[in-house]
Amino acid sequence: MSSSNFITFPKDFLWGAATSSFQIEGSPLADGAVESDWYRWTHTPGKIAQGDNADIACDHYHRVKEDVAMMKKLGLKTYRFSISWSRVMPQRGVLNEKALDFYRALIEELNQAGIQPFATLYHWEIPVWAEGGWENRETVFAFEEYAKAVFKRLGSLSAYWVTINEPLVIACCGYMWGWFPMGKTDANAYGQVAHHLNLAQALATRAFRDLQLKGQIGPAMAMSTFDPFSQNPRDIVHADRLDAIHNRAYLDPMVDKGYPQQFLDFAGKLQGPIEKDLKLMAQPVDFVGVNHYFRNTCRYKKGANILDNENFLAPGSRCSDLDWEVRPESFSDILFYVWDRYKFKSVFVTENGMATRMSKRGLEGTMEDDVRIHFLGTYMTAAQKAMQRGVPLKGYFVWSLMDNFEWTMGYDPCFGLIAVDPKTQERRWKKSAYWYQGVIEKNGIDLNELPLEPDYQLSPAAEAKVSA
Ligand code: FCB
Fold first, then answer.
1. Which of 279, 302, 382, 421 is paired with 24 by a 20 to 30 Å CA distance?
2. C-alpha 403 to ligand 1 mean position (Å)
3. Domain coordinates in residue numbering, the chain
4. Three-state SS letters, the chain
C-alpha cells in the first residue's frame, strides 16, 4: 500500500472508539443503582433540549454481546467506556455486585473479542449521596474509596485505566457556566472544583499504584489551544490567561508545578490544605489522554462574561453542525503542546470527532456522512503530523462508537460511526463506519479517498460578533 498519498501509523497503534456509561447504557436505576446528579438533571424540566433523557439511551445495558460483536466487526483494537459510580456504589462504602458483574462481563467480552478494554472510572455521573458534588471535599475521598474498590475487583482485567474524564468540562460547565449539574456560575466554585478534581485524580492514581496493578493509568483531559484574536498585547495576555485557567490549572499540578497564578487570581481563595494537596497531586501518570473538539480564538472584552472573553469565529469558517470550528492544525498544535510542555511518557487521543445534527440533515444525511469521513481523515492526519513532531502518540479514539445521549443537547447531535434507531434500537453503520473499518485494516489513510467537497456548516458573517 504505498501511494504517495497514503499515510501510515506505527504497527501497534491502538485504533479505538469511545462511549460513556450515562450516554449509552440506559436503565440508570436498574439492579440496585442509585440516582445520579445527571439522572436528576435530565428529569428536571427545561435542562435538556427537546426534553430528552437517558433512561433508554442506546440500551447498551442489555446489549453488551451484540455491541461488542459490532466493535469486533469494525476491527477496533481498543474500546473506551466508563463505569458508572452510581451503579457500583449505591451508598458510600457499599458495593453493588450486580453492577460489578455487568462491567466484568463487558470487559471479559472485550478480552475474548481481542479488543483492549480502556476503562474510565468516572465520566460524569455522581451518586446523589455525594452531597454538594465536587465542591464538597468529602466527594474526593468518597471517589478514592470507589476507585480502590473498582481496582480491587476489576483492576487486573483491563490494561488501561482512565481516572477522570475531562475535569475541565465538569468544572466549567457545572460551576462556571451553569449548564451541567450543579448549575453554578461562580469563579470560586470553579476553582474549588478544579482543585478537588485534581486531588481526586491523584488519589485514584495512588490507589492504583498501591495495589501494584500492572496496567497503565492516566486522566482524559479536555484540551484545546487558546489563540489570541489579534497580535494586540491585550489579546495575547488574555489568551495566555485563558490557557492557564483551562489547560495549565489541571496539568501543572500533575508535574509538580503548582497552580498558575492567573488561575489563582481568577478563582480567589481556595479552601483546604492546598500546599499538602499540591504535593499529593504530583503523582506520575503513565499517559495523558487528550479529548479535542475545537480551538478557541479569544478576544478580550471587559464584562462580556465571567472570563471577559469573546470567542471569535471568522465568517465562513468550516464548522460542525454545533458551530464548533473545524481546524485540524489546532489538533496537531494541542498534541504538541501537551507533550512539549509536560513530557508525558505517552499520549492518547481519548476523544475526537464531530457532530452532525439529525434535525438539519435527516436520516439520509446522517447515514451518508462524507463530512465525518473528511473530518476524521484530516484530524487523523494532523495527529500523525504531531507524531512527526515528536509526540509519543499511542492511540486514537473516535468519539463516538454510536450516536448517543449528548448531555444537555439530547439526541439531536449525532457523533457516532454507527446510528441507533431510537424506536427499534437497531444499529446501522454509517458510511464513516465502513471507512474507519478500512483505516484500521490498512493501518493508515489514503488521502486520495477523502471526500473532495465535504458538506461542512460555514459560520455566517452575522455570527462573527467582531467588527472588522
Ligand atoms: C466530550 C465528552 C463526551 C461527549 C463529547 C462530544 O466533552 O467527554 O462525553 O459529550 O464531548
1. 382
2. 12
3. 6-465
4. CCCCCEEECCCCCEEEEECCHHHHCCCCCHHHCCCEHHHHHHCCCCCCHHHCCCCCCCCHHHCHHHHHHHHHHHCCCEEEEECCHHHHCCECCECCHHHHHHHHHHHHHHHHHCCEEEEEEECCCCECCCCCHHHCHHHHHHHHHHHHHHHHHHHHHCCEEEEEECHHHHHHHHHHCCCCCCCCCCHHHHHHHHHHHHHHHHHHHHHHHHCCCCCEEEEEEECCCEEECCCCHHHHHHHHHHHHHHHHHHHHHHHCCCCCHHHHHHHCCCCCCHHHHHHHHCCCCCEEEEEECCCEEEEECCCCCCCCEEECCCCCCEECCCCCECCHHHHHHHHHHHHHHHCCCEEEEEEECCCEEHHHHHHHHHHCCHHHHHHHHHHHHHHHHHHHCCCCEEEEEEECCECCCCHHHCCCEECCCEEECCCCCCEEECHHHHHHHHHHHHCEEEHHHCCCCCCCEECCHHHCCCCC
